[in-house]
Design goal:
The longest helix is centred in the first third of the chain and has 17 residues. The radius of gyration is 18 Å and the shape is globular. The chain has six helices and eight strands, in the order H-E-H-E-H-E-H-E-E-E-E-H-E-H. 38% of the residues lie in helices and 24% in strands.
């Protein structure tokens, strides 16, 4: 299901009644909605991922590794770009990248800033910036920057076709077909 939080919860209830596995790519859940959705994992195999692309999920893994190595002395920023029709900002994928950085660096949401403007002063050492761009027909670009003194590391994934999301979703569905009830993620599918 790749619809809306309210509809995804209805689909999950239906799948639970029918004892059918469910792949969810919907984003934008409130904390309560996410908790309710995850509750269905007691009854069915349930995979939740903000992005089904194999490459994007590899990016999550690489960002985690880089953040652990570069957590001290490097400034971290996330920049995401999507087409001008996209409704949510930042994207669910950018929010997942933020969660990866927070977990890997043991920082909290209070260290996150969404965009910047005005006379803001020097950048705090542990701040993580999240920035959103919207325009044209961009399918989805995500870059995580690690800025150090004298060097910069950039990890980027660019989707040029929505087919990559469909292929990942089908791969996730095939994986879930043989699983017991539980909560799964794309890292389980990809064994990373």
């Amino acid at each position: 299901d790749f619809s809306s939080p309210a509809n995804t919860l209805r689909v999950a209830e239906y799948c639970a009644r029918q004892a059918k596995a469910l792949v969810v790519g919907t984003t934008g859940f409130s904390t309560a909605e996410k908790s309710a959705l995850e509750g269905f994992a007691d009854r069915i195999p349930l995979l939740i991922a903000p992005n089904m692309s194999v490459g994007e999920n590899l990016l999550f893994h690489l960002v985690e590794q880089a953040a652990r190595s570069l957590r001290d002395g490097y400034d971290m920023e996330i920049v995401e770009a999507h087409h001008h029709h996209k409704k949510d900002a930042p994207s669910g994928t950018a929010m997942r990248l933020k969660e990866v950085l927070l977990a890997a660096t043991k920082r909290t949401e209070t260290d996150v800033v969404y965009g910047r403007e005005g006379l803001i002063g020097a950048r705090p050492a542990h701040e993580i910036g999240v920035h959103t761009l919207r325009g044209g027909d961009v399918v989805g670009d995500h870059t995580v920057y690690f800025f150090g003194d004298g060097e910069r590391v950039e990890l980027t994934h660019r989707a040029s076709s929505r087919n990559t999301f469909a292929a990942g979703a089908l791969r996730a569905a095939a994986y879930l077909a043989g699983q017991s009830p539980g909560l799964y993620h794309m890292r389980d599918v990809l064994n990373i």
